[in-house]
Amino acid sequence: MTELDLLLMGPPGAGKGTQGRLLGEALGVPWVSSGDLLRHAVEDGSALGEEARGFMSRGDLVPDRVIVGLMSRRLQEPDARGGFIADGYPRTVPQADALAAALDALGRRLTAALAILLPDDEVVDRLSGRRTCPRCGRVYHVEHEPPVRAEHCDADGACLIQREDDSAETIRRRVAVYHKDSEPLIAYYGERGLLREVDGIGPPEVVAERLHAAAASSA
Ligand code: ADP
Ligand code: ADP
Protein backbone atom coordinates (compact mmCIF):
# COMPACT_ATOMS: atom_id res chain seq x y z
CA MET A 1 0.00 0.00 0.00
CA THR A 2 1.22 3.51 -0.78
CA GLU A 3 0.46 6.03 1.90
CA LEU A 4 -0.73 9.53 1.08
CA ASP A 5 1.71 11.57 3.16
CA LEU A 6 1.05 15.23 2.35
CA LEU A 7 2.27 18.55 3.70
CA LEU A 8 0.27 21.76 3.59
CA MET A 9 2.59 24.74 3.62
CA GLY A 10 2.18 28.47 3.15
CA PRO A 11 2.27 31.67 5.19
CA PRO A 12 0.08 32.13 8.27
CA GLY A 13 -3.45 32.82 7.05
CA ALA A 14 -2.93 31.19 3.65
CA GLY A 15 -5.84 28.83 4.32
CA LYS A 16 -3.99 25.72 5.53
CA GLY A 17 -6.49 24.94 8.28
CA THR A 18 -9.52 25.64 6.09
CA GLN A 19 -8.14 23.48 3.29
CA GLY A 20 -6.61 20.79 5.52
CA ARG A 21 -10.00 19.96 6.97
CA LEU A 22 -11.62 19.76 3.52
CA LEU A 23 -8.79 17.79 1.94
CA GLY A 24 -8.61 15.36 4.87
CA GLU A 25 -12.32 14.62 4.53
CA ALA A 26 -12.04 14.24 0.74
CA LEU A 27 -9.00 11.94 0.86
CA GLY A 28 -9.91 10.00 4.01
CA VAL A 29 -6.69 10.77 5.89
CA PRO A 30 -6.35 12.73 9.15
CA TRP A 31 -5.59 16.45 9.03
CA VAL A 32 -2.97 17.17 11.66
CA SER A 33 -2.36 20.82 12.54
CA SER A 34 0.83 21.49 14.50
CA GLY A 35 -0.67 24.76 15.78
CA ASP A 36 -3.77 22.94 17.11
CA LEU A 37 -1.60 20.29 18.81
CA LEU A 38 0.44 23.03 20.47
CA ARG A 39 -2.64 25.00 21.55
CA HIS A 40 -4.09 21.86 23.14
CA ALA A 41 -0.80 21.26 24.97
CA VAL A 42 -0.96 24.85 26.27
CA GLU A 43 -4.59 24.40 27.42
CA ASP A 44 -3.75 21.11 29.14
CA GLY A 45 -1.05 22.90 31.13
CA SER A 46 1.52 20.23 30.21
CA ALA A 47 5.25 20.99 30.60
CA LEU A 48 5.56 21.07 26.81
CA GLY A 49 2.65 23.51 26.60
CA GLU A 50 4.21 25.74 29.24
CA GLU A 51 7.42 25.85 27.23
CA ALA A 52 5.59 26.61 23.98
CA ARG A 53 3.24 29.28 25.32
CA GLY A 54 5.60 32.29 25.30
CA PHE A 55 6.94 31.59 21.82
CA MET A 56 3.42 31.27 20.42
CA SER A 57 2.03 34.42 21.98
CA ARG A 58 4.99 36.44 20.65
CA GLY A 59 4.53 35.00 17.16
CA ASP A 60 7.84 33.14 17.24
CA LEU A 61 8.32 29.50 16.31
CA VAL A 62 8.59 27.06 19.20
CA PRO A 63 11.99 25.28 19.37
CA ASP A 64 12.41 22.49 16.82
CA ARG A 65 12.91 19.75 19.44
CA VAL A 66 9.52 20.60 21.01
CA ILE A 67 7.49 20.32 17.82
CA VAL A 68 9.46 17.49 16.22
CA GLY A 69 8.71 15.12 19.14
CA LEU A 70 5.05 16.10 19.26
CA MET A 71 4.44 15.71 15.51
CA SER A 72 6.52 12.54 15.13
CA ARG A 73 4.41 10.85 17.80
CA ARG A 74 1.14 12.11 16.31
CA LEU A 75 1.97 10.99 12.77
CA GLN A 76 2.69 7.47 13.99
CA GLU A 77 -0.74 7.01 15.55
CA PRO A 78 -2.95 4.28 14.04
CA ASP A 79 -5.26 6.66 12.15
CA ALA A 80 -2.28 7.99 10.15
CA ARG A 81 -1.14 4.59 8.92
CA GLY A 82 -2.65 5.20 5.49
CA GLY A 83 -1.35 8.75 5.32
CA PHE A 84 -1.84 12.23 6.74
CA ILE A 85 -2.06 15.89 5.90
CA ALA A 86 0.41 17.78 8.06
CA ASP A 87 -0.66 21.43 8.36
CA GLY A 88 2.01 23.86 9.55
CA TYR A 89 4.74 21.23 9.93
CA PRO A 90 7.58 21.34 9.04
CA ARG A 91 8.30 25.06 9.35
CA THR A 92 12.11 24.99 9.38
CA VAL A 93 14.73 23.04 7.46
CA PRO A 94 15.80 21.01 10.56
CA GLN A 95 12.12 20.03 11.05
CA ALA A 96 11.93 18.93 7.40
CA ASP A 97 15.06 16.80 7.84
CA ALA A 98 13.60 15.26 11.02
CA LEU A 99 10.33 14.45 9.23
CA ALA A 100 12.17 12.81 6.34
CA ALA A 101 14.17 10.69 8.82
CA ALA A 102 11.03 9.69 10.77
CA LEU A 103 9.23 8.65 7.57
CA ASP A 104 12.31 6.82 6.33
CA ALA A 105 12.40 4.78 9.57
CA LEU A 106 8.81 3.72 8.81
CA GLY A 107 9.69 2.85 5.21
CA ARG A 108 7.62 5.78 3.94
CA ARG A 109 8.28 8.82 1.76
CA LEU A 110 6.45 12.10 1.36
CA THR A 111 3.91 12.13 -1.45
CA ALA A 112 4.01 15.89 -2.00
CA ALA A 113 4.47 19.25 -0.31
CA LEU A 114 1.50 21.44 -1.24
CA ALA A 115 2.27 25.14 -0.85
CA ILE A 116 -0.60 27.64 -0.77
CA LEU A 117 0.65 30.99 -2.13
CA LEU A 118 -0.74 34.25 -0.77
CA PRO A 119 0.70 37.81 -0.82
CA ASP A 120 1.46 39.50 2.52
CA ASP A 121 -1.35 42.09 2.33
CA GLU A 122 -3.94 39.29 1.91
CA VAL A 123 -2.36 37.46 4.85
CA VAL A 124 -2.92 40.46 7.11
CA ASP A 125 -6.56 40.81 5.98
CA ARG A 126 -7.29 37.14 6.58
CA LEU A 127 -5.62 36.87 9.98
CA SER A 128 -7.12 40.07 11.37
CA GLY A 129 -10.65 38.87 10.52
CA ARG A 130 -10.15 35.25 11.59
CA ARG A 131 -12.36 33.71 14.25
CA THR A 132 -11.65 30.23 15.60
CA CYS A 133 -13.73 27.59 17.34
CA PRO A 134 -11.92 26.79 20.59
CA ARG A 135 -13.59 23.37 20.69
CA CYS A 136 -13.08 21.88 17.20
CA GLY A 137 -10.51 24.25 15.66
CA ARG A 138 -12.70 25.19 12.71
CA VAL A 139 -11.95 28.66 11.37
CA TYR A 140 -14.18 31.46 10.07
CA HIS A 141 -13.67 34.98 8.78
CA VAL A 142 -15.87 37.89 9.82
CA GLU A 143 -16.32 38.93 6.17
CA HIS A 144 -15.22 36.11 3.87
CA GLU A 145 -16.41 33.01 5.79
CA PRO A 146 -18.91 34.09 8.46
CA PRO A 147 -20.65 31.43 10.56
CA VAL A 148 -24.41 30.95 10.05
CA ARG A 149 -25.14 32.23 13.58
CA ALA A 150 -22.91 35.23 14.40
CA GLU A 151 -19.94 34.39 16.65
CA HIS A 152 -20.89 30.67 16.98
CA CYS A 153 -19.38 27.57 15.39
CA ASP A 154 -21.58 25.94 12.71
CA ALA A 155 -20.30 22.49 13.69
CA ASP A 156 -20.72 22.48 17.47
CA GLY A 157 -22.26 25.84 18.49
CA ALA A 158 -19.26 26.89 20.66
CA CYS A 159 -18.59 30.63 21.05
CA LEU A 160 -15.92 31.67 18.55
CA ILE A 161 -12.76 33.40 19.75
CA GLN A 162 -10.11 35.65 18.23
CA ARG A 163 -6.73 34.00 18.77
CA GLU A 164 -4.34 35.99 20.97
CA ASP A 165 -1.68 35.79 18.24
CA ASP A 166 -4.06 37.23 15.60
CA SER A 167 -3.35 40.77 16.85
CA ALA A 168 -1.81 43.35 14.46
CA GLU A 169 1.67 43.34 16.00
CA THR A 170 1.95 39.57 16.30
CA ILE A 171 0.68 39.10 12.75
CA ARG A 172 3.56 41.28 11.48
CA ARG A 173 6.01 39.23 13.50
CA ARG A 174 4.63 35.91 12.21
CA VAL A 175 4.84 37.07 8.59
CA ALA A 176 8.50 38.07 9.11
CA VAL A 177 9.25 34.72 10.77
CA TYR A 178 7.58 32.93 7.85
CA HIS A 179 9.81 34.66 5.29
CA LYS A 180 12.98 34.05 7.29
CA ASP A 181 12.52 30.49 8.63
CA SER A 182 9.78 28.76 6.63
CA GLU A 183 9.99 30.12 3.08
CA PRO A 184 13.32 28.29 2.50
CA LEU A 185 11.26 25.08 2.57
CA ILE A 186 9.81 26.04 -0.82
CA ALA A 187 13.27 25.60 -2.35
CA TYR A 188 13.96 22.56 -0.12
CA TYR A 189 10.98 20.62 -1.48
CA GLY A 190 11.44 22.06 -4.97
CA GLU A 191 14.94 20.56 -5.13
CA ARG A 192 13.50 17.18 -4.08
CA GLY A 193 10.80 17.25 -6.77
CA LEU A 194 8.03 17.26 -4.16
CA LEU A 195 6.77 20.84 -4.36
CA ARG A 196 3.31 21.64 -5.77
CA GLU A 197 2.44 25.34 -5.64
CA VAL A 198 -1.20 26.41 -5.59
CA ASP A 199 -2.67 29.91 -5.86
CA GLY A 200 -4.47 30.68 -2.56
CA ILE A 201 -6.62 33.51 -3.94
CA GLY A 202 -10.23 32.66 -4.76
CA PRO A 203 -13.17 31.08 -2.94
CA PRO A 204 -12.21 28.19 -0.61
CA GLU A 205 -13.98 25.65 -2.89
CA VAL A 206 -11.86 26.76 -5.84
CA VAL A 207 -8.63 26.60 -3.85
CA ALA A 208 -9.75 23.14 -2.65
CA GLU A 209 -10.12 21.96 -6.25
CA ARG A 210 -6.61 23.18 -7.08
CA LEU A 211 -5.16 21.36 -4.09
CA HIS A 212 -7.10 18.22 -4.80
CA ALA A 213 -5.79 18.19 -8.37
CA ALA A 214 -2.21 18.75 -7.16
CA ALA A 215 -2.52 15.94 -4.59
CA ALA A 216 -4.14 13.54 -7.06
CA SER A 217 -1.41 14.12 -9.65
CA SER A 218 1.25 13.26 -7.05
CA ALA A 219 -0.33 10.09 -5.63
P1 ADP B 1 -0.97 29.93 11.48
O1 ADP B 1 -1.28 28.89 10.48
O2 ADP B 1 -2.06 30.90 11.67
O3 ADP B 1 0.39 30.53 11.34
P2 ADP B 1 -0.61 27.86 13.45
O4 ADP B 1 -1.85 27.55 14.18
O5 ADP B 1 -0.13 26.93 12.41
O6 ADP B 1 -0.81 29.31 12.90
O7 ADP B 1 0.59 28.07 14.46
C1 ADP B 1 0.45 28.92 15.60
C2 ADP B 1 1.78 29.04 16.31
O8 ADP B 1 2.21 27.74 16.78
C3 ADP B 1 2.94 29.53 15.46
O9 ADP B 1 2.98 30.95 15.37
C4 ADP B 1 4.13 28.96 16.24
O10 ADP B 1 4.39 29.71 17.41
C5 ADP B 1 3.61 27.60 16.67
N1 ADP B 1 3.90 26.55 15.67
C6 ADP B 1 3.00 25.86 14.90
N2 ADP B 1 3.63 24.98 14.10
C7 ADP B 1 4.96 25.11 14.37
C8 ADP B 1 6.14 24.49 13.86
N3 ADP B 1 6.08 23.55 12.90
N4 ADP B 1 7.34 24.89 14.35
C9 ADP B 1 7.43 25.82 15.31
N5 ADP B 1 6.36 26.46 15.82
C10 ADP B 1 5.13 26.11 15.37
P1 ADP C 1 -3.90 29.12 8.09
O1 ADP C 1 -4.25 27.80 8.71
O2 ADP C 1 -3.01 28.98 6.88
O3 ADP C 1 -3.36 30.10 9.07
P2 ADP C 1 -6.80 29.56 7.91
O4 ADP C 1 -7.37 28.38 7.21
O5 ADP C 1 -6.95 29.65 9.38
O6 ADP C 1 -5.23 29.75 7.50
O7 ADP C 1 -7.43 30.86 7.21
C1 ADP C 1 -7.11 32.18 7.66
C2 ADP C 1 -8.35 33.08 7.57
O8 ADP C 1 -8.70 33.26 6.17
C3 ADP C 1 -9.59 32.49 8.22
O9 ADP C 1 -10.32 33.56 8.77
C4 ADP C 1 -10.37 31.84 7.06
O10 ADP C 1 -11.76 31.81 7.29
C5 ADP C 1 -10.02 32.76 5.90
N1 ADP C 1 -9.91 32.07 4.61
C6 ADP C 1 -9.43 30.83 4.36
N2 ADP C 1 -9.47 30.54 3.05
C7 ADP C 1 -9.98 31.64 2.45
C8 ADP C 1 -10.28 31.98 1.07
N3 ADP C 1 -10.02 31.11 0.08
N4 ADP C 1 -10.78 33.19 0.81
C9 ADP C 1 -11.02 34.07 1.82
N5 ADP C 1 -10.77 33.82 3.12
C10 ADP C 1 -10.26 32.62 3.44
Keywords for this entry:
219 residues, alpha/beta, five-stranded parallel beta sheet, two-stranded antiparallel ribbon, 49% helix, 14% strand, binds adenosine-5'-diphosphate
Task: Report a brief summary of the structure.
Helices cover 49% and strands 14% of the residues.
Description:
- With 219 residues, the chain is α/β, with parallel strands linked by helices.
- It is globular, with a radius of gyration of 16 Å.
- It has helices spanning 16-27, 34-44, 47-58, 64-75, 93-105, 120-128, 168-182, 184-191, 204-218; strands spanning 4-9, 31-33, 83-87, 112-117, 130-132, 139-141, 195-199.
- The chain is 49% helix and 14% strand.
- It binds adenosine-5'-diphosphate (2 copies).
**Outline, from the CA principal axes?**
globular
The total count of helices amounts to: 9
Computed Rg: 16 Å
- Alpha-beta classification: alpha/beta
Indicate the percent of residues in helices. 40-55%
Spatial strand arrangement across the major sheet: 2-3-1-4-7
Fold blueprint:
Elements: E1 4-9, H1 16-27, E2 31-33, H2 34-44, H3 47-58, H4 64-75, E3 83-87, H5 93-105, E4 112-117, H6 120-128, E5 130-132, E6 139-141, H7 168-182, H8 184-191, E7 195-199, H9 204-218
Parallel strand pairs: 1-3, 1-4, 2-3, 4-7
Antiparallel strand pairs: 5-6
The structure holds adenosine-5'-diphosphate (2 copies).
